[in-house]
Specification:
Blueprint (H helix, E strand, L loop, with lengths): L2 E10 L7 E11 L4 E5 L6 H8 L7 E6 L2 E2 L5 H11 E4 L11 H6 L9 H14 L15 H13 L5 E5 L7 H16 L3 E5 L3 H4 L4 E6 L2 E2 L3
Parallel strand pairs: 3-8, 3-9, 6-7, 7-8
Antiparallel strand pairs: 1-2, 1-4, 4-5, 9-10
The protein binds adenosine-5'-triphosphate (ATP) and magnesium ion (MG).
Amino acid sequence: MLIELNQIDMKYNKGQENEVHALKQASLSVEQGDFVGLVGASGSGKTTFLQIIGGMIRPTGGDYFFDGMNVRAMKDSQLARFRNQKIGYVLQDYGLLRDRNVLENVCLPMMFSHMKWHDVENRAMELLTELHIDHLKARRVNQLSGGQSQLVAVARALAMNPPVILADEPTGSLDSNTSAHLMESLIKLNNAGTTILMVTHNEEISRQCKRIVRIRDGRLLAE
Ligand SMILES: Nc1ncnc2c1ncn2[C@@H]1O[C@H](COP(=O)(O)OP(=O)(O)OP(=O)(O)O)[C@@H](O)[C@H]1O
Ligand SMILES: [Mg+2]
């Protein structure tokens, strides 16, 4: 199993009066090559769950193994390397550097690798072309539309060619044609072996996933 989550528990502000119990005994196994759709109401814990899988936040309970590695036991520096090398994450609010241009944003994760600049730039342009936003390469992010920003966030997540892509509603700001094109790109990657977990509210999108995991009030429902 590539991803093994066992009884994951997440309490924000644990022990304080503003504590929020966002995930309760969440267990999930995902094998390499899977394409999981994560579905649930607003506030049900989808982003929290994805951020734990991506190593962006640490759960307050449970076990998490990634390809046999104990993620909960990792030091911060190990966790940072794990995120950079294993996970491509499309944030719900894009998380782009707004005063940098499109190309710089997509190149960013590769700046922490040993890639040559020439290869970094080629890879970034390849992704911008695939997503039909190559004409925007020199545009500053704060001058993009929401949908264009979302595609830049996807390109940045794919830059390192990660084995796992975690996408928090990656089609949320896209029109139906662009959204269908993005799904084609993701399915192509998935067919080549990339494991994908994706939050979606869209029925048509979720139907294209191999599995649907439903979450309600912090609990994963039986599939
Ligand atoms: N940093 C935080 N501190 C405190 N509570 C938080 C924090 N982030 C999320 N929460 C709470 O945890 C619960 C789950 O939030 P989460 O963002 O995971 O929901 P979601 O399913 O992604 O919702 P949406 O569909 O609106 O994006 C909510 O009650 C939310 O208010
Ligand atoms: Mg969310």
